[in-house]
Structures are given as C-alpha cells and as structure tokens.
Design goal:
The protein is of the alpha/beta class. It contains 22 helices and 17 strands. α2 crosses α4 (123-146), α12 (268-288) crosses α14 (353-386) and α12 packs across α17 (468-474). The longest helix has 34 residues, at 353-386.
Length: 593
C-alpha cells in the first residue's frame, strides 16, 4: 500500500526529552520521516514541566490539527500542541498525563479487568497506565478527524506500550507498529549474570520477572508485542533475546541510523577536529595545569559515554583496562598523555568549587593575555620606529606583568587534580569508587589522566563548553566495550564524526558492522572480543587496542580519521529508513487482510 495516503503517529517517552538512546533514534529519524509524511506525521510524548519546554515550541494548531485539538478538549485532556525544535520541525502533542492522577485506581482496575494485568502502586507502572489511556483517547481524536484515512501508530518501548492493548480492546481502526529497543527483563538480567545470551535460553521469563519485581512491567511489554500488527527490534542480537524472553518472533529488524553530514571539502572534518580539539585543550589546561603541566601537543583524548549502566555499557571493563594501558605507555616509553573522559548522567549536587574556580581563573588569565597581546604589535612598531634595537621587556608594561603574576599565583594549587568534575550526591558512586580502586588518581607521572563528568555536555552551562557531538569531533578515540547493548549509538556517532571507536562483539551494532563492512578495522571500527574470552583477557585486549591507536603518529591518525569518515554513509538514515518504511507498509497491508 502507498504510504503517501497514510498518517503516522509516533509515540515515545523520549519525545522532546532525553532519557536514553531512544531519544537519539527518534530525534535523528524525525527529519527524514517528516520528508516522507509531511504534515501527516505527528509525535506524541509526555509533558514534563521544566524539561519539555527546552525542546518544544507551543503553537496554535491549524488545519486538521485544530479539529484534533478540539476533539481532545472535549475529552477533558490537557495537552500542548507545537513543534519539536529539531530539523524538520515535526508536529508534536505532549500530554500532561499527571492531570488525571486522581483517576489512577480507576484506570488500573480496568487494565486488570480488560487485560488481566494486575499492577502495583509504583511510579513507573502508574505513569505507563495513565499515559496509555490518554494516548488511546488522543488517537481516537485523530480517527474522528481523519475519517477514512489509514492511520499508523508506532510505539517505542514498554513504557508507552500499555496503550496498545487498550487500543485493541476499543477496536480502534489503526495499525500498530511496536519497537522493542531492548527488553526490560534483559536489562535487569544482564548486570547479574555471566554470558546472558546463553543464560536466557534456559530460564522461565515469568519467574525471572517476578524475581526482579517487574512482573507487571514484563506483562505490559509482552501484551504490546503480541498486540502490535508489526513487531520490530533494532538488531539480530535483540531479536534472539526477544525470542527467549517474550516468546515472540519479530517481523522486521530496523537498525538505527544517524543523519550523516558529509562535507563537500574533503578535509573539512579534519579542520573541525582541530577546532574542537583546541577547545578541549583549553578545558584540560584549566583543569590540570593549576597542579602541574604536560605538553598539549602530545596529548590525546579518549572517552566513553552513555546511560549510567556500569556493567551493561562496559564502563567497568574500560576503567579496569586503564592501569594496563598506563603500564603499556610507560613500558614502551610512549611520550604522550592520554586524557580519559567518562561522560554519563548521575545524581550530583553541581560542579565542584575547585573545578569552577580553576576554569574561571584560566578564562581570566586567557582574557588578559589576549588583551595584552593586542597591544604588543603597536608597542613593537613604536620601538622599531624609535630605535632598531628591540627591548622585549618593554612590550609588556609593569602593571600588566604584575597583574598576570597575581592571576597566575592565585591559580596555582598544591595536590592533585580531582578525577571528577562534580560533587556526587551519593558517596558510594560505583564509577568513582572504581577509579579510586584502580589508583587512577591523576598523578603527575601517570600517562593516563581521568576526567569523570557525570552530566550531559552542552556548550552552555558546562565547563567543557562543547555540545556532545562537537566534543566527539575533538577527541581521538571512543570506547564502548558493552556487555549488553541491543544496538549501540555511541560508536556510530563516532563514525559520523570521523573518529575511530572500539565496541564489543556483544552489541547489535557490531553484528551490523561485520555484515556490512568485513574490513571494518581498516576503517577505524574495532570490535573487542567479549563473547569467547574471560573478563581478564578482554581487559588486556582492550588495553592493547587502545594502545595501538594512541601510539599512531599524527599522519597515521589523520589517515585513519579519513577512512572512518569515508564509510559513515552506510549508517545514514537515508539508507536505513527503508526498514521502517517496510514495517509501516507491512502494517498497512494488514488492513486489507
């Protein structure tokens, strides 16, 4: 069936709101979906006061959306209509679902009565049920406005999937696509067992869900997968997981993509790398140089990032590999400093005072130096005009010299730089404790330095002063040795930025790379063996892989970045959107079946 006549509604908990990787999937896919469906595309998400406004512009609805909003108002629902502030400006309806919280027991009763799922009094469950019933109401309003037009509704993950059995119970004339990006049960099991993909073959998922106290959540996810007309997931590795945990076969695998920006000038991505690397240099100077200095021209930046899942994301393995990396660098007398960034989201009390103070004084010192430097050409010219002998001491006057010295001495500190940029809310933070356990204390003699930044990066409100994607471009290597990762956006983002990366063979992304790019290592996509060797062996292999990359000379690093950038288009949504379009087309054909 031709999609040009249909309407697409996409529902996610992460519309205009970053929680995890699904935000990036939907946000990056929305522009190309908007190209296909035009004004017939609308996203639905929850309205979270103080957060949604950061990416959402409320607007007065026009055309058919005016009728839809009028229908919604008749149901006494509170929603906001507008545009998501991203490329393509897709239509968005945000539901203020908590406004009906006084009816939660009523909704939960009918959810049990109609679908046989008893739900405890728990925030995640309450939110899912509240949101689910209101999403079903909103979709009814779309149906009233669109009359005979075919309507597709695409749900992402279990926490919005509660709407699916409700829609089926009401026999609403829509076709449903449901995508599981990772099973909820899989996320719970993975941190607690070795070799999860063998383990799940021999378990009773009902018993495991009860054991982890997520039985109702599991039943909602299972009901959503069986209620959908088309069921998809993002990788073959997750399809296998779903087969064992949900006892369901997926219809289509829909790999995740990115909007790849290729440059008309071949070396432009190298220029951007240099630009953003300079900004990281400035942060690193402000962070470390009050205590001791090292040569920034011989400094490389590596990083890991993602959701705070210590074992699942391989943060444990990465941190445990760093002492071995430091040993390799010193043993082989490699004259470089490696600054390691750990970027994730944890609960903090805000930036440490010493970190803010050091950056502030560095900025002031930099500003004064630039101001003085602007005056030097004229002073130098005046000296040459008056006499051919040049007195360099007169290029900076006594007042300026004293001021610079005062700033410098107020900046210098004793001790060691902190390994973390923030005051942690919980002192038993597992990442911080592992850094301490491995004696990664930013000692002067250590070739490996640590900057743990437990918050998302942005060009405003962050001491690094770079947005995340720009930060990536300034780095030299991304490291994501995940133990449990249905897809894996982070190494793909590195490829899009022309930066090499390391992932593991337990990720959906690595399977896709092996299939599409047999010579992936030549293109800076390195895959760590975690499936067929011990944790200790993986530590040693990872340290060696990092060592091999950071030991390259400058020319070799440039060549490697060029090779990474050259294959980035295979991850472009322009190529990968076909799988979602196939899923939509398959769902629509079932209208006629």
């Amino acid at each position: 069936m031709n999609l040009s006549n249909s309407y697409l509604i996409e529902v996610s908990w992460e519309v205009c709101r970053q929680v995890g990787g699904i935000y990036q999937v939907i946000r990056s896919k929305a522009p190309i979906i908007t190209e296909h469906f035009k004004d017939r595309y609308c996203l639905i998400g929850p309205y979270i006061k103080g957060i949604s406004e950061l990416e959402f512009e409320e607007m007065q609805p026009t055309g058919v959306y005016r009728e839809i909003l009028q229908n919604i108002a008749k149901k006494n629902l509170k929603v906001k209509f507008g545009k998501w502030l991203i490329t393509g400006s897709p239509n968005v309806i945000l539901i203020d679902f908590l406004c009906l919280f006084d009816r939660i027991q009523e909704f939960k009763y009918f959810f049990w009565k109609d679908h046989g799922i008893e739900t405890p009094d728990e925030m995640w469950i309450n939110d899912a049920i509240l949101f689910g019933y209101q999403v079903a109401d909103v979709i009814e309003c779309f149906i009233e406005a669109f009359s005979s037009k075919p309507i597709l509704v695409h749900f992402h993950e279990w926490n919005v999937g509660a709407a699916i059995p409700i829609i089926k119970k009401r026999s609403l004339p829509v076709k449903i696509v449901f995508t599981t990006h990772a099973t909820l049960l899989g996320r719970y099991i993975a941190p607690n067992v070795d070799n999860i993909y063998e383990y799940i073959k021999f378990i009773n998922p009902y018993d495991e869900a009860k054991r982890y106290n997520i039985f109702s959540h599991y039943l909602i996810e299972r009901a959503a997968s069986y209620g959908a007309d088309v069921f998809t997931t993002v990788s073959e590795i997750t399809a296998e997981e779903i087969k064992h945990l949900l006892h369901k076969k997926v219809d289509i695998i829909t790999p995740n993509g990115l909007n790849i920006r290729r440059f008309t000038v071949a070396h432009e991505h190298q220029n951007l790398h240099g630009l953003f690397k300079t900004k990281i240099h400035q942060f690193v100077a402000g962070y470390f140089f009050p205590y001791y200095t090292f040569d920034l021209e011989k400094t490389l930046y590596i990083f890991t990032s993602g959701r705070y899942e210590f074992r699942n994301k391989g943060i444990d393995l990465f941190l445990d590999s760093l002492p071995a990396l430091n040993h390799l660098l010193m043993q082989n007398n490699i004259d470089i400093t490696v600054v390691v960034f750990i970027i994730t989201k944890a609960k903090t009390k805000g930036y440490r005072y010493d970190v803010l103070q050091n950056q502030f004084i560095y900025d002031e010192l930099n500003h004064v130096c630039e101001t003085v430097a602007e005056r030097i050409p004229q002073r130098l010219l005046n000296q040459i005009i008056e006499k051919p002998q040049i007195n360099t001491e007169e290029l900076i006057n006594e007042t300026e010299r004293m001021y610079l010295k005062r700033i410098y001495y107020s900046w210098k500190k004793n001790g060691l730089p902190s390994v973390v940029t923030h005051e942690m809310e919980y002192p038993d933070d597992v990442i911080l404790n592992t850094i301490y356990k491995n004696h990664l204390l930013n000692q002067k003699e250590s070739r490996v330095k640590i900057v743990y930044h437990p918050d998302f990066l942005s060009s405003f409100g962050s001491v690094v002063k770079l947005d995340y994607l720009d930060f990536i471009r300034g780095c030299h290597l991304g490291i994501f040795p995940s133990y449990y990762e249905p897809w894996g956006y982070t190494p793909m983002e590195c490829s899009a930025a022309g930066i090499p990366s390391i992932t593991s063979d337990l990720t959906g992304f690595s399977l896709y790379v092996k299939k599409m790019l047999p010579n992936h290592e030549e293109h800076g996509l390195f895959i760590l063996n975690r499936k067929n060797q011990s944790y200790h062996e993986s530590i040693q292999q990872l340290a060696k892989m990092i060592f091999n990359v950071v030991s390259l000379n400058r020319r070799q690093r440039i060549e490697l970045r060029n090779r990474v950038e050259s294959i980035s288009e295979i991850f472009d949504w322009k190529n990968l959107i076909q799988y979602y379009l196939q899923a939509y087309d398959l769902a629509l054909t079932k209208i006629q079946s």
